[in-house]
Automatic annotation (TrEMBL):
<keyword id="KW-0812">Transmembrane</keyword>
<dbReference type="InterPro" id="IPR004710">
    <property type="entry name" value="Bilac:Na_transpt"/>
</dbReference>
<protein>
    <recommendedName>
        <fullName>PIN-like protein</fullName>
    </recommendedName>
</protein>
<dbReference type="GO" id="GO:0009941">
    <property type="term" value="C:chloroplast envelope"/>
</dbReference>
<keyword id="KW-0732">Signal</keyword>
<feature type="signal peptide">
    <location>
        <begin position="1"/>
        <end position="20"/>
    </location>
</feature>
<keyword id="KW-0472">Membrane</keyword>
<dbReference type="InterPro" id="IPR038770">
    <property type="entry name" value="Na+/solute_symporter_sf"/>
</dbReference>
<dbReference type="GO" id="GO:0016020">
    <property type="term" value="C:membrane"/>
</dbReference>
<comment type="similarity">
    <text>Belongs to the bile acid:sodium symporter (BASS) (TC 2.A.28) family.</text>
</comment>
<keyword id="KW-1133">Transmembrane helix</keyword>
<dbReference type="InterPro" id="IPR002657">
    <property type="entry name" value="BilAc:Na_symport/Acr3"/>
</dbReference>
<dbReference type="Pfam" id="PF01758">
    <property type="entry name" value="SBF"/>
</dbReference>
């Protein structure tokens, strides 16, 4: 159900962007936390036990998240000719980047 809701939201945002002007940067972390909570609630003890029975698959997922994702971020940024300053925005999503005034 969640992928369907995400897809419909993305389509609505593309066709009618003004619908989502009320969404601010401050609402991203709680929204992401809610999504992660809704996914985590659906996990059962059997799901967690199955994950520990397959440590090789866990290692592949770990490597994909912390190595492959970073490498793809660099490749995409270089492919679009972005400044290295913007690489971190592709490689470390979810961190709270806020501009601070110069002293």
């Amino acid at each position: 159900m969640l992928p369907f809701v995400v897809f419909l939201t993305a389509v609505a945002a593309l066709y009618q962007p003004s619908t989502f002007t009320w969404v601010s940067k401050e609402s991203y972390p709680p929204a992401l936390g809610g999504i992660m909570l809704s996914i985590g609630i659906r996990l059962s003890i059997d799901d967690i036990a199955l994950a520990f029975k397959r440590p090789a698959l866990l290692s592949v997922g770990f490597a994909a998240q912390y190595v492959l994702k970073l490498a793809l971020g660099v490749l995409v940024a270089q492919g679009f000719g972005m400044s290295p300053m913007f690489f971190s925005c592709l490689m470390l999503p979810g961190h709270n980047y806020q501009a601070t005034p110069a002293s």
